[in-house]
Inverse folding.
């Protein structure tokens, strides 16, 4: 099996997906922006061939793909901006897998909501807008508070909550560079994910994670140490509505084989509302968290699903798994870490991995990367202690930069 895998080394988790493809016996060909020398040893070992080309340039990518001189059986990509490009290449080469039209449904937030809504599922009231006047008109019709966000966004970038006309004017000023926006009813409630690996549209693996707090809040306040908690029991009654919604969405959008990452909201009155979905794996180490929850290797199982349409891991859910991202206080380089030793002494046996930036390292831009200045992952069979450990890390471990 020859698999063309776009972006085999970035974002960082792609390294493991590339390795997974090789693990299941595929011959893996990669295309990405950087020179071959920049690929790490894991990717180098996993690849049968590599070409450097700008993925933003369709023709260059197509040419690079042809230059391998092999017949591909699969074309895959798990990096959001190029999921459509992979579908495009599949159509050009006549390879089975998700069509371009289907991929667009997973990428264009308006088209996505139209398709989900047409299936009778609850989406936020929404509209597409190209001009400031269109946004204003939709806002009046939908009613405040509203959300304004790019049609093809990621990372909560340029996403604004507006409680009033005045706040909308401020947001319009900040979104002038965005060609097309979604205007949505603001849905108040808790926010969860629904992640799957599907084979021919049927989930062979599923997962629910809980955002604490909601991503927009986490992305708007630097003092927050955002948490994402993989729930040990995604099949509990409290989450059933979200899972049913998720299964409906997969059908509505015509999911085939691969990873999906959906976000959904649960209102105080129990109503569940669709957020968004991607035909790709979640970022921010969520795949690692899922692996820690059941001691499985979903990088490899995703590969097995796309290459062989099978899933062989035994998923025995053992832990709730929380990741806590840290933002340092101050600017510049990390100078010291406080509270980590005491934390590790107390909870070390529950810590799956600790990857805080060490003193001397330059701070990351917390607005650009969810991972911020590092993170810890804790796991426990029960939820309450998991949350307690997560909160304590947020409160008692501090990074200082200057
Ligand atoms: N209609 C809405 N009601 C309430 N909150 C919303 C709504 N739309 C977006 N948000 C908030 O903004 C966040 C970002 O929105 P969304 O997930 O659509 O964009 P994104 O840029 O693709 O995000 P990411 O890549 O971080 O998942 C959501 O996680 C949620 O917290
Ligand atoms: Mg999102």
């Amino acid at each position: 099996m020859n698999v063309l895998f776009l972006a085999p080394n970035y974002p960082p988790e792609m390294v493991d997906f590339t390795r997974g493809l090789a693990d299941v016996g595929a011959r893996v060909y990669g295309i990405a922006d950087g020179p071959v020398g920049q690929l790490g040893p894991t990717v180098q070992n996993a690849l049968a061939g590599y070409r450097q080309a700008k993925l933003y340039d369709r023709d260059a990518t197509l040419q690079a793909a042809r230059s391998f001189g092999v017949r591909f059986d699969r074309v895959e990509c798990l990096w959001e901006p190029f999921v459509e490009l992979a579908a495009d290449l599949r159509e050009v080469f006549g390879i089975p897998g998700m069509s371009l039209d289907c991929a667009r449904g997973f990428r264009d937030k308006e088209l996505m909501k139209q398709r989900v809504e047409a299936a009778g599922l609850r989406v936020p009231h929404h509209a597409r807008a190209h001009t400031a006047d269109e946004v204003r008109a939709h806002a009046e019709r939908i009613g405040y508070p509203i959300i304004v966000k790019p049609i093809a966004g990621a990372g909560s970038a340029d996403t604004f909550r507006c409680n009033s006309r005045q706040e909308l004017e401020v947001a319009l000023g900040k979104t002038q560079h965005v060609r097309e926006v979604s205007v949505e009813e603001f849905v108040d409630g808790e926010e969860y994910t629904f992640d799957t690996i599907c084979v021919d549209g049927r989930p062979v693996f599923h997962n629910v994670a809980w955002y604490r707090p909601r991503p927009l809040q986490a992305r708007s306040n630097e003092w927050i140490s955002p948490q994402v908690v993989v729930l040990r029991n995604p099949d509990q009654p409290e989450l059933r509505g979200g899972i049913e919604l998720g299964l409906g969405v997969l059908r509505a959008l015509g999911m085939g084989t691969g990873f999906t990452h959906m976000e959904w909201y649960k209102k105080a009155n129990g109503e569940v509302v669709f957020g968004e979905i991607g035909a790709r794996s979640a970022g921010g180490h969520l795949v690692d968290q899922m692996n820690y929850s059941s001691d499985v290797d979903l990088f490899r199982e995703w590969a097995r699903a796309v290459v062989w349409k099978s899933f062989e891991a035994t998923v025995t859910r053992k832990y709730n798994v929380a990741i806590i991202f840290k933002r340092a206080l101050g600017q510049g380089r990390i100078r010291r870490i406080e509270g980590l030793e005491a934390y590790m002494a107390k909870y070390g046996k529950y810590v799956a991995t600790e990857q805080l930036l060490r003193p001397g390292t330059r701070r990351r831009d917390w607005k650009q990367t969810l991972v911020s200045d590092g993170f810890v992952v804790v796991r426990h069979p029960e939820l309450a202690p998991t949350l307690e450990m997560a909160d304590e890390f947020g409160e008692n471990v501090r990074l200082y930069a200057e």
About this structure: The CA atoms of residues 26 and 251 lie 28 Å apart. Residues 263, 276 surround magnesium ion (ligand 2) (CB under 6 Å).
